[in-house]
Structures are given as structure tokens and as C-alpha cells.
Specification:
Length: 404
């Protein structure tokens, strides 16, 4: 038995198979298949690592079906590091699995600023000249196997070139790094701009190292451990020479991955922007104008189960006068986005999304707020497909709009 299998077996053996995790697992909830539960998947890995089960399509499919929402980790009384177990197993059998073309495209965009610039230009032409509308009418994305990717693409946004440094507008309280992620600047520049506006107005100098890159989550969860480690090293270098109070993230999926980097002097500084703001000593009471709007609040799995700072979002939004906040109920599980999951498993992803949207639309809302770009793109696509006009935005965008 090799060392990796020993390590996997040791972690798997820590699961007592109590089943407390099962009702928290979206795939088990919807299939009632024990192999689609956390303890079922742990048992499969246990059997494989112990030499009792070979690599089969069934084994690979059951593991690949996992959303890695990590709700099971939060519920587990034995504190089994389930997410790491799944990632390590996927890394060990990486060569045995094929990666869909859509996931390869997303990874290539995520890991290269040159590709991101090219995509920005292509999207401009694709959408501004109505090529996207024509392509969809002719069902070309589906013909080329790109339908699930095409549905996520938001409308083209004009954006400015980001600077490496933005000085505080008032007396400086300190310096923070802003991690924009691989998709923020490309698909959600409004959130990047709002984060810079809020952070500088409350007194922080904001650093945006131009050599920062993808957090590595896409590679890590795809089993590409070497690729994720290269990205981790690049990000540590990008932020290491800055005397920063915090490394602020605007996507909770990125934040969870950064928070689990091996370098503790880096990871300990990582904070979701809502959590960071709620723990500053800034008095928002004389800064925010009233917003008489209705907000449906979505808490991404990475914020609830990874960073575990989801309560900070509602506390932050409650500072906006007259804003009416309605959180989605705890019974709503993962939205189905889960990084590249919706590109691999569109049926389960849409089942989970439809469940969320049906509940969300029971309450009339002006906005649906989410702290993770992957979730936001997935939810916005679902709303468009239902013909709904609700705007899906990051909480920091709503806060920035309320600034006097």
C-alpha cells in the first residue's frame, strides 16, 4: 500500500458512519442512494484504499457527483475532513478521469490573464453585435456541447483598467489586499469596483497585485493538485511583500480556498469582505442613505460551511436604512453551481437551482444577493430562463449604492 492510500485510509477510518451527515447532503437528499451520501462516499474510498475495490466507472461517478458543499463537515460530530479527503482521492485518480471541454475552457480562462483579455474582447463582439442571440436561436452552443457554459455568461460589462493601488479617501486606518479572483474582473467588475469604493471610503489603502491569479479551487477540485499548488505559490508571492491587515475576498469560494493555503501567515489574513467590514470600527450610520428595497439573501455553501461567516452578510446589510432582508430558509441546500459542477452535472445542478428559485420567488424581491460569483452566475441564469427580472448582485454592490 502506497503512502497516499495509507493517508486516505487513516482519514476515512475516522468516520464512524453515524449518518448524521446524510440529511445535510444534497445528492443523498435527492437520490436516497447511500453511495451518494458522505458516509457512502467515504466507505467507497475506504474500500478502494484498502484494496477491496478497484477503480470502476461507478466508483468514479459517485465521487464525482459530490458537490463539495461541505455541509456534512459542518454537521459531523467526529470532525472528519471530508472535503480534503475527496480532493486527495480525486488527485490520486486524476489520470483515470476525463475532463469535459467546458471545464477545460473555464480552467484555461481562470489561470491566464492573457486568455481573460482575449475572452473579454470576444464577448464584446459576441454580445454587442447580437451574435450570442443568433447563436442561441440556432442552438449552436448546444450543438458544440457549450450550452451549459453559454447560459452562465452575463451581459457584457464595460470596465476600467485596474490600478495596483488605491489610496484611502480619508485618514488611512491601514492597508488591505483585494483578491479579485479569476472571474471577478471578467464577469463581475461591478463587485470589484464596489469593493474598492467601500474600502477606500472607510479609510483603507487597497492593494491589487497584478500578479495575483486564480485561487486554485477549480484545479484542486478537478484533481489537478500540482496545478493548484502552482497557483497557490503565485498568490503567496503576489501578496507577500505587502504589510497587510487583511487579504479581502469578494467571492466566498475563493476565500475558502485561500483560507486553506498551507502558509499560515497568508491564510490567517484571508477574510470575506462582509466579515471584514462588520469587524472594522467604522460607523456606517451617517454614511448610508435609505434603500426602500426588498432583498432575498442567498448564503453560498462556501460562506456557510467553508468560511462559516455567513451571518456577517445580514449584519452588514442591516446597516442600510429601510432595506428589507429576507434570507432563504435553512432547508435550501446547495444552489448547484459548486465551481464547475453545473458544467459536469447539469441535471442535478438544475434540480437544486429550481428548488432554490421556487422558494426565493415566493417572496417578491428587488434583488437577490449572493457572496459568490459562481453561485450568482448560476442563479442569474436560472432567473433569466424563468423570465424573471430580479437583479442578482453581491452584498458589497448594494452597500456601495447606499453610500452618500
Amino acid at each position: 500500500m502506497n503512502e497516499i492510500k495509507k493517508q486516505l485510509l487513516n482519514v476515512a477510518d475516522s468516520c464512524v458512519k453515524c449518518g448524521i451527515c446524510a440529511p445535510h447532503c444534497p445528492t443523498y437528499t435527492h437520490t436516497q442512494n447511500e453511495n451518494e451520501s458522505p458516509r457512502g462516499r467515504i466507505a467507497l474510498i475506504q474500500a478502494w484504499a484498502g484494496g477491496h475495490l478497484g477503480i470502476t466507472d461507478n466508483l468514479l461517478n459517485h465521487i464525482d457527483n459530490c458537490l463539495l458543499c461541505r455541509a456534512c463537515e459542518k454537521a459531523c460530530p467526529a470532525v472528519v475532513p471530508y472535503g480534503k479527503l475527496i480532493d486527495d482521492f480525486r488527485a490520486e485518480i486524476h489520470e483515470e478521469q476525463s475532463t469535459p471541454i467546458t471545464v477545460k475552457i473555464v480552467k484555461s480562462i481562470a489561470e491566464s490573464k492573457r486568455v481573460q483579455r482575449s475572452v473579454q474582447l470576444i464577448l464584446n463582439v459576441y454580445q454587442q453585435n447580437k451574435l450570442q442571440k443568433t447563436a442561441r436561436l440556432l442552438r449552436l452552443p448546444k450543438l458544440f456541447g457549450l450550452n451549459e457554459l453559454d447560459r452562465l455568461v452575463p451581459n457584457y460589462q464595460e470596465k476600467e483598467t485596474l490600478k495596483n493601488y488605491y489610496a484611502a479617501k480619508n485618514e488611512a486606518k491601514g492597508d488591505v489586499g483585494l483578491f479579485v479572483g479569476c472571474m471577478g474582473e471578467l464577469f463581475d467588475f461591478a463587485t470589484v469596483s464596489a469593493a474598492i469604493k467601500v474600502l477606500t471610503q472607510i479609510g483603507f489603502n487597497v492593494h491589487l497585485p497584478n500578479n495575483q491569479t486564480c485561487c486554485g479551487a477549480l484545479a484542486l477540485h478537478d484533481g489537478d493538485k500540482n496545478g493548484s499548488l502552482k497557483l497557490e505559490q503565485q498568490n503567496k508571492i503576489a501578496f507577500e511583500n505587502k504589510d497587510l491587515q487583511a487579504i479581502v475576498t469578494i467571492a466566498s469560494g475563493c476565500g475558502t480556498t485561500l483560507r486553506e493555503y498551507s502558509a499560515k501567515n497568508f491564510s490567517v489574513k484571508v477574510m470575506d469582505i462582509s466579515h471584514f467590514l462588520i469587524h472594522t470600527d467604522f460607523d456606517f450610520s451617517n454614511t448610508l442613505k435609505p434603500l426602500d428595497e426588498n432583498v432575498r439573501l442567498h448564503s453560498p455553501c462556501s460562506l456557510k460551511n467553508g468560511l462559516r461567516t455567513d451571518k456577517s452578510v445580514s449584519k452588514l446589510l442591516q446597516k442600510i436604512p429601510e432595506l428589507k432582508i429576507s434570507p432563504l430558509p435553512e432547508t435550501i441546500q446547495c444552489c448547484g453551481a459548486a465551481g464547475s459542477y453545473s458544467l459536469r452535472h447539469d441535471k442535478m445542478a438544475k434540480t437544486l437551482l429550481n428548488e432554490l428559485l421556487t422558494t426565493a420567488l415566493e417572496t417578491p424581491s428587488d434583488y437577490l444577493v449572493s457572496s459568490n460569483i459562481g453561485c450568482a452566475l448560476h442563479i442569474a441564469a436560472g432567473l433569466r430562463e424563468r423570465g424573471e427580472k430580479i437583479e442578482v448582485i453581491h452584498p458589497i454592490v448594494l452597500l456601495a449604492r447606499s453610500f452618500i
